[in-house]
Design a protein that fits this description.
CATH superfamily of the largest domain: P-loop containing nucleotide triphosphate hydrolases
Radius of gyration: 20 Å
Largest sheet: 5 strands, parallel
Distance between the termini: 23 Å
Shape: elongated
Structural class: alpha/beta
Number of helices: 10
């Protein structure tokens, strides 16, 4: 008996498909318009250091990459930050610090914020949630982070989810019909991360089975995932 395909989260792991982070490929929608407009006003920002916050897959990295390309900014994962490297990472005069969260090297981050302020460096930090709700050991660091203006990305509305699904399928040169899009909109979590995962899973499963990517394939794939999770299906 052939093995059941894994769920979308498992199938998406390790996918090497390239997704464009160019400005022209960013989908402007009400959930991200305010953040995009603020970043586009650079260097006329409300402050030189901003926080871009939003759930996983909400477009933070894409927005950060757009600004980094325009400002000539270096992009550094917050997990790689250490105190000795702070002067070097600020040398370009603009920095994206990706995925800042509790557990970051607080001493290094506090040093980076101080040096960036003194040097007039532009700093964009991305995070899952605004710093006000974080638990940090250094009170001065928490105070400094809470004072930074936050650009909040909202979860995608139906229009953005639909547009993202269409774009992700098009990126993979997959032409899909209305039936598949409606089915996915009703079944997947309302997040861009979920949209990426399910498109990757369908593409991979279509290639594996040498079948078109359509509603029938999605019913099989998501129905199998729901059974694995012990859920009822509505198909």
């Amino acid at each position: 008996m052939p093995s059941r395909p894994a769920g979308p989260e498992q199938l998406s792991l390790g996918f090497a498909h390239h997704e464009s982070l160019a400005r022209e490929d960013f989908l402007r929608m009400p959930s991200n318009a305010a953040a995009l407009d603020t970043l586009d006003r650079w260097p006329d920002w409300p402050a030189r250091a901003l926080v871009l916050a939003g759930p996983a897959g909400s477009g933070k990295s894409h927005l950060a990459a757009i600004w980094a390309a325009r400002a000539g900014a270096r992009i550094l994962p917050a997990s790689a930050l250490n105190e000795a490297a702070v002067p070097e990472v600020l040398a370009a005069g603009a920095l994206v610090l990706e995925d800042v969260r509790p557990g970051v090297d607080e001493v290094a981050l506090f040093h980076l914020l101080n040096l960036a302020r003194d040097a007039g460096t532009f700093l964009l930090s991305t995070a899952l949630a605004p710093p006000a709700g974080w638990t940090l050991r250094l009170a001065d660091l928490h105070s400094r982070l809470r004072a930074m203006p936050v650009l909040q990305l909202a979860p995608p509305d139906d229009a953005l989810l639909r547009a993202v699904l269409v774009k992700l399928f098009a990126d993979r040169q997959l032409a899909v019909d209305e039936g598949l899009l409606v089915y996915l909109e009703r079944r997947i979590e309302r997040s861009l991360a979920a949209a990426r995962a399910v498109v990757a899973a369908l593409d991979r499963e279509g290639l594996r089975q040498q079948r078109p990517v359509n509603r029938a394939l999605a019913v099989e794939l998501l129905g199998a995932a729901a059974e694995d999770a012990g859920e009822e299906t509505d198909v």
